[in-house]
């Protein structure tokens, strides 16, 4: 298991007004969170004050991430990748563009995301939960989960990490975390779906407890 920071550049490319989100008069935090956790239109394509404000494919945005993963894990045509919490499948699609012949699969809890997924990979996305992956042991050469597992409750996180370990030969995940009280406050202000508020050390405890041996990284709200 190694720390592999792939997501910080993408995360830091977005400007965030933490106080504006938490103090918004029309969508105060509790209202925004209630809407977001339905994982429907409001979460993906609704008002920016609720969450993404329109989650659309941007040419090559995820290709840089896919390229680094392909090089780091030595992936080749015919290898199988599973994206846990794949959303609309944008990273899945960019994998196929960077490495033709790669076999991609995704799973997500949001029926809205699947219905509005990138057309080229929509048929490759299963509806389901990270806590019970409908796949065989070591079925995938690489299993990834980007900014999804911190949305699980504690009783769900344990089986989800164990499931990633079970179905993947190699694993990589990225989750939200904090190192300082300022970062914790910013995370609390910004998030609308997060249920795991863990320091890097606490995440390490989870990895050890569940037997997760894959790579990981954290994003911080600085």
Task: Give a structural overview.
The protein is of the alpha/beta class and 222 residues long. The protein has one domain: Rossmann fold, CATH 3.40.50.150. Helices cover 38% and strands 16% of the residues. It has helices at residues 8-12, 18-23, 29-36, 41-45, 63-73, 90-98, 111-115, 154-167, 181-190, 200-210; strands spanning 80-84, 103-108, 125-127, 140-146, 168-176, 215-219. Strands 3-2-1-4-5-6 form a 6-stranded parallel beta sheet. Strand 4, helix 8 (154-167) and strand 5 form a beta-alpha-beta unit.
The helical percent reads: 25-40%
What is the alpha-carbon Rg in Å? 17 Å
Counted by DSSP, the helix tally is: 10
**Any idea how many domains?**
1
Give the tags.
222 residues, 10 helices, alpha/beta, 6-stranded parallel beta sheet, Rossmann fold, 16% strand, 38% helix
How is this fold's topology laid out?
Elements: H1 8-12, H2 18-23, H3 29-36, H4 41-45, H5 63-73, E1 80-84, H6 90-98, E2 103-108, H7 111-115, E3 125-127, E4 140-146, H8 154-167, E5 168-176, H9 181-190, H10 200-210, E6 215-219
Parallel strand pairs: 1-2, 1-4, 2-3, 4-5, 5-6
Helix pairs in contact: 5-6, 8-10
